[in-house]
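Suppose you are handed a protein chain with no further information: no name, no annotation, nothing but its sequence. What can you learn? This example shows the usual starting point.
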Amino acid sequence: MVDTYKHKGMREKLIRILMDKGLEDPAVIEAMRAVPRHAFVEGAFAEAAYEDRPLPIGDSQTISQPLTVAFQTAMLKLKKGMKTLEIGTGSGYQAAVLCAMGAKVFSVERIAAHHRRAQRVLNDLELRVRLKRGDGSAGWQSYAPFDRILVTAASPGIPETLKKQLSIGGKLVIPVGERERQQMAVVTRQAQNEWEIDWRGWFQFVPLIGRHGWKADPDR
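A reasonable first move is to predict its three-dimensional structure. Written in structure tokens, the prediction is:
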């Protein structure tokens, strides 16, 4: 993967746009400045890699809008070394941003083609992310508990499975609502059976398909 001066300049322009839209977290800014988003975008959409908008990656999935990536990441209040689970690997871009922030990243993806491609791109960038293909709504119990969990797809509710895979003091960031529109929930595990939920802004994500999310679209 070639990361040219042109690409770096385009990233810098994107960072300025995100800061103008309210991004303030310096660690998130530096991570997004470091990760080459164009490596995660293929074909005709590669030229749009540094525009602040979601882009198709196939199978009715998208690489999230950079502003959404920035805001979700900032909500995690991530610190270096934290064990972090991402639900919905997709292109691998969000996992790369988490990795650039020093997190120990685990990521689950249900679509085989995205899982394989993300693995290849992350390996090419020499980013150490442990990937799994499976039902992300069930989390990754064998590596739980996690300090942070980030869900990059919309859920009809907050899955109990994910809440219980948080460490005490851990945070779960997840968009919750209808398929068309969701509100971001920041869930903090206060004690063994106690969680605090802070509701943030409104977003639009692809649906979280799985046992503890939405059923697959019957029209597909």
